[in-house]
Write a structure and sequence with these properties.
Helix content: 40-55%
Radius of gyration: 24 Å
Number of helices: 17
Oligomer: single chain
Number of strands: 6
Largest sheet: 6 strands, parallel
Distance between the termini: 45 Å
Amino acid sequence: MDLLNKTIKNIHPLNKTAVIKIKACLAEKMTNDAGLGALRDILTSYVGITGSSTPAVPEKCTIVCCADHGVSAMKVSAYPPETTVHMTENYLISRGAVANALASFSGSDLHVVDMGIAAPVDALPGLIKRKIAPGTKNCAVGPAMTREQAITAITTGIQLADTYVDQGYHCFLPGEMGIANTTSSAAIVATLCALSPEKATGRGTNISDERLKVKINVVRQALAVNKPDPNDGLDVLAKVGGFELGCIAGIILGAAARQSFVVLDGFNTGAAALIAHALCPIVHEYLMGSHLAAEPAHGAILKKLQLKPYMDMKFRLGEATGSSIAVNLLDAAVLAYKTLAIDKLPEYPMIYTREMSVDAAASPLDCEACTREILPLDQNSMDACQLRIDNLCKPIYSLGCLESIAVKLAGILHSARPAALGRALLCFAGSEGLSTTQTRLTAAFAK
């Protein structure tokens, strides 16, 4: 408890001096700094958190916290509890999970923590062993954990944040894995956002209508049996939460106390953030929203935390998927500022300039490209791509819009397993070319 109290005391308002310097620099370098839109807001938030008016792209740390939930005995999930250990093995052995792929995409180092997996997992290579108990108790019939265990879960997260900040990480992407954890999260959200069980509870792992009715009743029962106190974050965590959710709350608090940035993922990390917010209301200033999850109550979480989503991708997976994509907005904001603030243009991707003119006498179809046939998308490749995704990713359709993009790409390339494509930015300008500001920003966004 001493560590928790000390950590909360070390969380201070954002550094206004650094924010003022950044805003003044942007106003000086750009005719319309509002043109950066949300990137300007992300940048000023990041600068206020770190206190540095010369920001750098941060080292990123994805921490997937894993634990089992006793409430899974109420049949609230489409998957059995053993799935938690299977997914943990996937992160660490085959490294074939979405969490692995998107951590790599975002340039983040992935760490996996056992906070309370019911199965024996000590032999898993690279696993961070912090097991409090082999899963929580069934919150539908009594408290999920003791108050002491709740404190341990949070302080474990604080210690992890401290460890990784000491190693040079200043941007955290917490994720979670635990069958039935959306049931615990729904109970947390119902308590801390004053929602009914019906409004707080969603389909989680794409459960059926009948199972959703069961899940809503289980949340209602958990709230009635435990009566969590919305004015006491520890009480809420102890009565209806999960060990992994407590750990994420601790990571958030620990990162804030060390002036580090936290990008939230979806519904479960949002519920954990509500616990952290209940313990320290100012902590919301250290958070960035990422996407709007498919769970219907996620919007209420973001509103309570005064955050906004930057994407609506229909994700229902967790595992830091949305945050791994959205964190690139932070990188873009920092790189854009750096190109504007320094005297010499950084050595970013080369910008090639080409002058083009139009021959008014030429036929508009007098070019090879204009006479090529535009083929329809290859349906066989699209079907094969969707089938592969369905077999690789559980729960089914959990990747939302990413799946439809991949399937369309398969149809365009006539390949069931489309590869990454080369990319280019094309900027069309008049005879005067790009301005200095446009050139610098184009270089930053190309990187």
